[in-house]
Amino acid sequence: MTPNVRTGLASFVALAALTLAPIGGALAQGQGGAPASGGAVAPINGLPNPYETLRDFGRLPDGRKWGSVSGIQVDNDGKHIWAADRCGANTCAGSTVNPIVKLDPDGNVVAQFGAGIFIWPHGMDIDSEGNVWVTDARLATKAELEKFPNEAKKGNAVFKFSPQGKLLLTIGTPGTVGDGTGALLNEPNDVIVGPNGDIYIGESHSGQSGNATPATVARIAVFSKDGKYLRSWGKWGAGPSEFKTPHAFAWDSQGRLFIADRGNMSLKIFDAGGKFIAEWKQFSRISGVAIDKNDVIYAIDSESSPTANPGWYKGLRIGSAKTGVVQYFIPHHDAERPTGGGGLGAMGEGVAVDAAGNVYGGEVGSVVGITKFVPRLLPR
Fold first, then answer.
1. Cβ neighbours for 52, distance < 8 A, ≥ 6 positions apart
2. Sequential DSSP letters for 330-342
3. Closest C-alpha to 299, from 316, 285, 311
4. Is 1 within the bounds of a domain?
5. Which terminus, N or C, of the chain has the lesser number of Cβ atoms within 10 Å?
6. Residue ranges of E strands in 114-185
7. What does the angle CA 15 – CA 58 – CA 363 come to, to the nearest 5 degrees?
8. How far is CA 265 from the centre of its chain?
9. How big is the CA angle at 82 (ends 182 and 284), to the nearest 5 degrees?
């Protein structure tokens, strides 16, 4: 297995058993999605769904209720699930609960830590040694600071924890704002450890907002394994090496870095040095991405709508990281607002896949907590 390939333990056996058509097989344009770079692709909403959707996976201790969960990963054992809960709400400002939790396959919490460190836990990675990396993707708001003034020195940082919760490393200076040129961070969306131990961080979350300008930070910053700033690439825009929201990362078996550029509604693919390889539009407006050891790609769309991405529905699209062909589509599930045409229901923001092929979505918005998608056989 390639070291540090996130979600690289997922088994393809469950999907292969469906025998609908091999991943990467020929599919019609607009239904399977041609792996073209950059060009428009007809919406892909009607592919087979080989999964059962199970809401409300996992039980927090002490009667706690789930909040928003965008950071979610599978432990290196392929069974346990790590999640970053925003402290029963959509913020950890002023909270004393542990936002980082580890769940066993039955959904019971077996470890928890991180109280008092975060404002807005967002992205997550588990490295080859089992260490837990989590981004804190914003500063405290004015309203939060008025209520909790001690939160001014938190946010805009990346933390590395041991599996037992010991803080091992901090990247960035919590409470500060970077300008996109050095070691200070600006709204770090996600973090991933590279095959050689380098640390990749995607900035910033504001790039998809209507107030974004060419001066908005939108880059991939690379640090050494001991946290020293090495280099960065990217700027705000829609070009091949430009980003609007580099929101999530995954490595494939070839050591290629897949970046979910949510603001540009695409997947952008680079080598480990930052050289542009391709841009794929066929996986929609992606918030989270995972690639298993068989190069099956899981791209979760939590934001598409008639205004944000006309014609595309929220959902989870599954295909091949080798060919770019999309083969399966798990549609959105019910939320506390109308569902149906236009994708107005709910779908998770973070995504992870365990060794048995179960998929987990971290929910943010009108639905919170974790959703589990269980493979099932379709009638032949």
1. 373, 374, 376
2. EE-B-BSB--STT
3. 316
4. no
5. C
6. 121-126, 132-136, 157-161, 167-171
7. 75
8. 14
9. 70
Domain with 158, as residue range(s), is 13-375
State how far Cα 298 lies from the chain centre: 10
Of 249, 261, 192, 244, residue with least CA distance to 222: 192
Q: Report the alpha-carbon distance of residue 10 to residue 379 in Å, rounded.
A: 23
150 near 27, Cβ under 8 Å? no
Whether 121 contacts 134, CB under 8 Å: yes
Q: Going edge to edge, which strands form the sheet with 266-270? A: 246-251, 257-261, 266-270, 276-280
The answer to whether position 8 is within a domain reads no
Q: What is the pLDDT of residues 345-374, one digit of tens each?
A: 799 999 999 999 999 999 998 899 999 999
User: 340 forms bridges with which residues in the sheet?
Assistant: none
Q: How far apart are CA 316 and CA 298, in angstroms?
A: 7
Q: What is the CATH number of the domain that holds 120?
A: 2.120.10.30
Greatest Cα pair distance in the chain: 60
How many domains, in total, are found in the chain?
1
Bridge pairing between strands 242-243 and 235-236? parallel
At 93, is the secondary structure helix, strand, or coil?
A: coil
Q: How far apart are the first and last CA of the chain?
A: 33
Coil vs helix vs strand at 151: helix
Structure tokens at 199: 């640390």
Return the structure tokens found at 123. Answer: 């992205």
| Angle, CA 135 vertex, CA 55 and CA 84 arms, to 5° | 25
Q: What are phi and psi of 140, to 5 degrees?
A: -65, 145
- Per residue in 302-344, pLDDT tens? 999 999 999 999 999 999 999 999 999 999 987 544 444 444 6
C-alpha span between 24 and 296 (Å, rounded): 10
